[in-house]
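Appendix B, example 12.
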Amino acid sequence: MSTALLVVDMQKFFLSMTATCLPNVLSLSSHFAAHNLPRIFTQHGHTKEELTPPYKNQLVRRWGPEGSIAKNTPGWELIPDIAKHASQEGCTLLGKNTYDAFINTDLDEILRKKGVKRVVVCGVMTDCCCDTSARSAFDRGFETWLVDDACGTATEKQHEAGLNGFGFAFGEVMHTKDVLKKLG
């Protein structure tokens, strides 16, 4: 089955949430690269217009402009090790402005053109963008795996809530080592 890796929002803004998951995200990305499998990296950010009242973007309304990531700022940049992977040949870097990596993007079209049937999701935040994007992949007909030790968020409680909700009804929650073993 054709499988793609979706690496969600591994940006400097979220660096404090990546201590545990970053090595596993890099391991997954290296494996996908070695097997010539599609890798899509998302980069969350808001335009100056979205950060100016009246706020048209729901996330900016929820978190305020101070709690949102402005495009082309240091927090918007990818973590350097992730940036190296995302800039490799064959990778896709996709900008997004909401939790769901499918909304306001070409992600669905990109995956279908590549013949992808399964999406492996990792990155940050487990309970926001990763879970939402993984559920959205499931709703679009993709078999979806959420990689628990390759996701990070603000607290362990939030991490477990995201994993449990997804695993209950949407797809498999797996460890990196099990993903690598299943993919061969």
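The beta strands are 3-8, 39-44, 91-96, 118-124, 143-152, 172-174. The chain has a mean pLDDT of 97.
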